Amino acid sequence: MSGAPDVAPPGQAPAGVPTGNTFDKYGSTNPVVRRLMAGFEATLDRLFAAAAPQSVLDVGCGEGVLTYRWAQRLGEKPIVGIDLPDPKLTVQWQTRRRENLEFRPVDVDVDGLRSFRDGSFDLAAAIEVLEHVPDPERTLAEMARVAARHLLVSVPREPLWRGLNVARGAYLRELGNTPGHVNHWSKRSFVRAAGRYGEVIEACSPFPWTMLLVRVS
């Protein structure tokens, strides 16, 4: 999921697109999408640098676009990306290999994170993931358990996200709700939700997302 934040034009995912994605945001040539993604990635890079992790768990890593970039950035430090068992994701993961990088098919909705010990990773990240999971509180709690120092999380900012979808004529029958989004947070409510698991040390608003760096308790 985190391989591709949802800023898609109207329409469904083409055949062969992995689980959770509706559009290739990182590879888009659309100038509006590119501008939005530039802001998103700049904020994400800054918060990742501030966390300065020695190891990373990327929850809902999607095709592994961000996971692979982080693995390059970490050098020899370990990173594990997890996402739903999906043959299409497996194909994508096989194209992104490094000695310090591991991908695992794990369903976080059915206690998949319990395979990791307490404090196993310096940083646990969920980038554009929590809006998709049925029980985000449990997912956040498990991420906080396996993270020794920080959480790095982002979600669409509501109701702005749905308003933008409606304005561009997308998902009108769903009142602008992107398919697969089952949870919705304003910036304030997301800060409050994440704050239950640690100190929110940075709360950023790259348009139209909310992105937090949390020091775990």
Question: How far is the first residue's CA from the last residue's CA?
Answer: 26 Å
Corresponding CATH superfamily:
Vaccinia Virus protein VP39
- What can be said about the biggest beta sheet? 7 strands, mixed
Quickly give the CATH architecture: 3-Layer(aba) Sandwich
How many structural domains in the coordinates? Answer: 1
Count of distinct strands? 7
Task: Note the beta-strand portion.
Answer: 15-25%
Flag low-confidence runs. Answer: 8-18
Helix proportion range: 25-40%
What count of helical segments does DSSP give? 6
Mean pLDDT: 89
Spatial order of strands in the largest sheet: 3-2-1-4-5-7-6
CATH topology: Rossmann fold
Question: Can you give a write-up of this model?
Answer:
- It is a single chain.
- The chain is built from six helices and seven strands.
- The protein has 217 residues and is of the alpha/beta class.
- The chain has one domain (31-216): Vaccinia Virus protein VP39 (Rossmann fold, 3-Layer(aba) Sandwich), CATH 3.40.50.150.
- It has a seven-stranded mixed beta sheet with strand order 3-2-1-4-5-7-6, sandwiched between helices.
Give a short summary of the structure.
With 217 residues, this protein is an alpha/beta fold. The chain has helices at residues 31-51, 65-74, 87-94, 136-146, 160-167, 187-194; strands spanning 56-59, 79-83, 101-105, 121-127, 147-156, 198-204, 209-216.
